[in-house]
Amino acid sequence: MRPGSVAWWVTKVRQTKRHLLARVSGRERQAAAAWLTPAQLALFDSMHVADRRHGLDVVAALRAGGETDRELLLAGLLHDAGKGHTGMVPRILHALGQARITWPARAVGWLPGMTPAIQRLRDHADTSAQLAEAAGCPPRTVDLIRWQDAPRDPEAGERLRLADEAN
Predict the structure, then answer these.
(1) Residue 47 located in a structural domain
(2) Structural domain of residue 43, as residue ranges?
(3) pLDDT greater at residue 136 or residue 107
(4) pTM of the full predicted structure?
(5) How confident is residue 92, by pLDDT bands cut at 50, 70 and 90?
(6) Residues 6+ apart with CB under 8 A from 117
(7) To bridge 47 with a disulfide, which of 22, 51, 92, 130 should be the other Cys (CB 3.0-4.6 Å)?
(8) Is-contact 81 128, C-beta < 8 A?
(9) Within a domain: 1
(10) Which of 113, 121, 114, 102 has the alpha carbon at shortest distance from 50?
């Protein structure tokens, strides 16, 4: 999906709504805990609730497509761990930057914490991969996370990218 296209804008509006309404039930957390190591669960628990919800939705989409590859499912769950607890404004500014609409970020970049938050979002794939590695994820999972936007694995990486985009 091309940044700035109508489909991209529709997706971004949907994602904003989902971000604001995000919840993870105790049952969903327990289900995730059943297949995660304690360190991986701690990483999952440290994520912003919207990123946890998104990870669960990505895993559900992968499973609905018949996916059983644990390393890919793990990547789907944790791929946004590096976004941190950034607020909605930096996330919107980051998304606009992806569409080459940079003036809003320049206009409010002087606000305390804004520039580091936008940089964190920009670099989240690498940060997420580092966090996943520190949590004991397999090297393949770490690579799937690191290259989530430009998959190097033409099969599993592309399935992750598509599930991420769809959710």
Answers:
(1) yes
(2) 6-166
(3) 136
(4) 0.90
(5) confident
(6) 84, 86, 87, 90
(7) 51
(8) yes
(9) no
(10) 121
